[in-house]
TrEMBL record:
InterPro entries: FN_type2_dom (IPR000562), FN_type2_sf (IPR036943), Kringle-like (IPR013806). Keywords: Disulfide bond, Repeat. It comes from Lepeophtheirus salmonis (Salmon louse). Disulfide bonds join 27-54. Pfam families: fn2. This is Fibronectin type-II domain-containing protein. Residues 8-56 form the Fibronectin type-II domain.
């Protein structure tokens, strides 16, 4: 069964999310030293306000 992507802290990723005007539908490593991350909360414009590092699972890639 499908399991949504989560952060290392077991928080569900909010997908898609926007970061500095770019929309992401999966984890990104932008501005995080090559480590993939996702939004865990977004504002009214879908921009990331909370985030976490993604788990290395197929749901996150």
């Amino acid at each position: 069964f499908f399991k949504a992507c989560q952060t290392l802290e077991q928080q569900p990723c909010v997908l898609p999310f926007a970061y500095y005007g770019t929309s992401y539908s999966k984890c990104t490593d932008v501005d995080n030293g090559g480590v993939k991350w996702c939004a865990t909360s977004v504002d009214s414009t879908n921009s990331a306000v909370g985030w976490g590092n993604c788990q290395s699972t197929s749901a996150c890639n």
